Each structure stands twice: as C-alpha cells, then as structure tokens.
C-alpha cells in the first residue's frame, strides 16, 4: 500500500485548465522499515516535473538548465530551502501523529500543496494532508487556521496553531512565495511550456484475451502539450465508444506524453468494416487518421513446417560438425601407427568406427536433402 501510494504521487501530473498556470508540491513521509526513503517529494509546474528529492540525497535535483545560471540562483535557493524545510515538518507530522495514536508498524503521512495563477488575475493556493491514505487536515490560507477532516486530527490543529512562527512561515509561503516561484519559472521557461510536439502513432494488434476477436492498440506518444483527443473510427465516419478501452495520459522521460486506446474487433466486423485511429492535437494542422490493416495470421501447418525445417537444419549442422571432427582427427601424420597390442579389440573398434562414420554420413545426407 505504501509503495503504491508513493509511486502514484510520483507519476501524478496536474492537468491545468486553459489559461491557468500552477506550481504543485507532493511530499510523502514513511515510517522506518518501509523499504523506501523516509521522505520523498516532487514539484511540478503545469505539466513539467521540475524537481525531485528524497532523504537519501544530499540536495534536491532540479531539472531546468537556467537554474544553474545567475538569474536562476535565487529561485534554486528558495525552492531548495522550502523542500528541506518541508522534509522536517512532514517527518515531524508523521512522528507526532504515530505517537499520539500509539500506533506501531509502518505508516505514511502525505502532503499536497501549491498555488495557481488564472488568466483573469485570480489566485488560489492550498495545502492538505493525509494519514495512511485518508484525509486528515488542511490549511486555510485566508484565515491562517487548520481544518480537521476527522475528529482525530483536532490535536494536530491545536499544536500547529499554537506555534505562531510556524504558522507565519506557512502563511507567507502560500500567500506570496509560492506565486513568486511560479512567476519566475514562467518567465524563464515559457518557451518550454508553450512548445508543441507532434505525436507518433503506432497500431499494434493482438488476440483478444476474453473473446475470439482482435485487440487493436492505438499507441500515441511523444506529444506535448498534454491535452490530446484519440478516437477509433469505423468506416471513416462512426466514432466508436463500445468495445473501446482508454488508458490514462502518462508522462515520458523527455517531458512529452503518451496514451493508449484499445479497440476490440470481432472476426465478423473485421470482414465487414474498416477501422482507423484518429488523433487531434495542438501540434497538428488537421486530425491525423491512421488506418488499421489487419495482419495476415500464420496457419498452424505453416508454423509447424517451419519449426521442423529449422530443427532438421540444426541437427544436420551438428552431425556434419561431428563428421568433420572425426575425419580431421583421422588425418594423422604418415609415421602414425596404431598400437600392436589388443589387435582383435582394435580391429573390432576400427570396424565399428568405420560403420558408424558411414551411418552418420548417410543420415546427414538425408537430412540435408530433406531440409533443402
């Protein structure tokens, strides 16, 4: 449960609405013995993963080149300070909650927070916490109060509100510094955020698992921005929904995205209709249509014949190698003479070897002939 929760957060990507830019933070603290770093955090601007840090690292890893230059130094220092500060607060939150409930074993404490800038000038910021995967408490930035999601979180609310210095740090960050970080990032990375990358589309077919039909996978990958529309079309007109399974839009390592849509086609429909995968994306001047051409299935007889022919060839090669080795070993120097003792035994052995050699030659020739 813990591992899946953490991995889910690391793979989560925020889909910002048009005209909205956002900076989001995700942190997870885990008890000792979980087999995972005690603290993990990732930060995302719009759809771009900008930083990663866990408690096994000396410092956070930030994924933008301009942060290494003078103009990005203040951004780096401020974001790094907040990441390390959040590590201490989240580990304290987990330890304090576990002790309060007198829990044992492995537990997790998660925090999500961030800020959004909308095109109409409005702003929004938030911070919410969960304990063992369930809503626990959240921070109201406007009133500087903590709101307990469950009665068990009231003790935490009182502890946090009693620490005025801690309250002020949280208030300042979510009211000012989060937006400042976001604005800096947008200023220096607008070219990256506004780029458009054309998708690549591949169709892959396989036998359906639960029917006699065929699954056709439309794999769309390498596109940016994240928003994309992928549909299966029948006979160039009908948009299909029944028999279609859609995956989630997932991030690639190069900051592009991928999506799969799978269509299941019965043998009867495959003969009567044509199908194509249609993709609509901001990088395209017009919708892309990729037609599915069913692959010809190999018959079992053809496959079996191919396997037998391959086996025959392998056996022939092995036997041929043995014959060559035998003949090569028999080509001794002229002054070689067999031992004079045990003449009958040697004569019998030589006779047997000669017979076996002739037999091998005969088998090899037959196999070669059959294979050819």
UniProtKB/TrEMBL annotation:
The chain crosses the membrane at residues 297-324. Pfam families: C1-set, MHC_I. Residues 331-372 are annotated as: Disordered. Residues 1-18 form the signal peptide. GO terms for biological process: immune response. Coiled coil: none annotated. Gene3D superfamilies: Immunoglobulins, MHC class I-like antigen recognition-like. InterPro entries: Ig-like_dom (IPR007110), Ig-like_dom_sf (IPR036179), Ig-like_fold (IPR013783), Ig/MHC_CS (IPR003006), Ig_C1-set (IPR003597), MHC_class-I_related (IPR050208), MHC_I-like_Ag-recog (IPR011161), MHC_I-like_Ag-recog_sf (IPR037055). GO terms for cellular component: external side of plasma membrane; extracellular space. The keyword Transmembrane helix applies. It comes from the Eukaryota. Residues 199-291 form the Ig-like domain. Keywords: Glycoprotein, Immunoglobulin domain, Membrane, Signal, Transmembrane, Transmembrane helix. PROSITE patterns: IG_LIKE (PS50835), IG_MHC (PS00290). PANTHER family: MHC CLASS I-RELATED, SHKT DOMAIN-CONTAINING PROTEIN. Belongs to the MHC class I family. This is Major histocompatibility complex class I-related gene protein-like. It comes from Acipenser oxyrinchus oxyrinchus.
